[in-house]
Amino acid sequence: MTDQRADGTTEPMSAIGPRLVVTVLSSAVAGPVLLAYGMALLWFSPEITSPGGCRQETGGFGPDSGTFLWGLACAAGVAGVLCFGVALARLHTNRRWWPWLVAAAAILVAGSPAVAGLADAAWCPPVP
C-alpha cells in the first residue's frame, strides 16, 4: 500500500491496523497456551527433577524419560515466548513481523506432545 504525497511521489503506508489485529488475536490464543505450558512445567517439576525412588525413571534420555520431556517442553515454551516477543517488538516497524508469529505457533504446536506426555512420564507406580 502506498500513500501519495502532494508532490506526486509515493511513500509506503504503514498497515498497523491489520498487524495489530492479527497480533492481538494470535496472542489471545497463545497466551493461554503459554500459561498451560508454564503451569505444566511448574506442576511436574518436582516429580521430574527429584524423582526419588521411582523405578520408572531410568537413566536413559529417551522419549519415556520425564527429564527429556520436561526439557523439551521448557525449550518450546521459552522459544514460543521469545518469538512472540520479537513479533511484538517488530509490530510498529515495517520489518518482517509475521514470520515470528508463525514460528511461535509452530513451536507451540510442536511442543504440545511433550507437555501432554509430562503426566505419564512423571507418574510413578505405587510400591507393592
How would you explain this protein's 3D organization?
The termini are far apart. With 128 residues, the protein is mostly helical. Helix content is 64%, strand content 5%. The radius of gyration is 21 Å and the shape is rod-shaped. Helix 1 packs antiparallel against helix 2 (66-89) and helix 2 (66-89) packs antiparallel against helix 3 (98-116). A two-stranded antiparallel sheet has the order 1-2. The model has no long low-confidence stretch (mean pLDDT 77). It is built from four helices and two strands; from the N terminus they run E-E-H-H-H-H.
Give the averaged pLDDT, no decimals: 77
End-to-end CA span: 70 Å
The biggest sheet, with number of strands, parallel, antiparallel or mixed sense and barrel status, is: 2 strands, antiparallel
Helix-strand pattern: EEHHHH
Classify the beta-strand content into a percent band: under 5%
Query: Can you give the helix content as a percent range?
Result: 55-70%
H/I helix tally: 4
Residue windows where pLDDT falls under 50 for at least 5 positions: none
Question: In what order do the strands lie side by side in the largest sheet?
Answer: 1-2
Overall shape: it is rod-shaped
